[in-house]
Amino acid sequence: MKSILKKISFFILLTLTLTTCKKSYIINDRQFILFQFEYINSAWGYQHYGFFIDNEGNVLTYRNPDSWNFRDKNLSLTGAQVSENLSKCTKSKIKISQDELQKYSGYIKNISASKVTALKNVGADAGSSEYLCYQFSDDTDIYTSHLIKMEGDFTRENLNFYSKKVVAWMKEINNSLAGNNNLIP
Question: What CA–CA distances, in Å, run from 109 to 9, 66, 134?
């Protein structure tokens, strides 16, 4: 009798686990961007370039775009601002697989809830590279960015365990883009 109850309990637990652990790479049906790499340097002439990773795994690049919408003091962009920025991007030849996108987008919730180290000045004239992830609110049509890592003249780092993995992944993408002449590191 105990054996049958154990098997039934195991089956129920397994069924609940499988039905509640569905993951989707789309955080929200209307969320178009998940990640962004951005480099800005004004020291030796203005340079501004980077890429977005969208909800379909496309890597969309930009270089010195006119009338760019930067995040506000709350680190946010409206849906219209994101759409306008995306219209100034070029679709690269790189496409992130659905499995890979699902894996890394699954870290966004944890990263967004984590603390970030204090800003530390480490140099000059190097500019700033930022690795960001986004959350989208359907109610307000607002994308809120969360810093994963900042490098360059100043450094900051998200303290979440997954942050280093996401940054390493985004650096691989950036290196691939540089190899394809889409971006210059």
Answer: 31, 32, 9
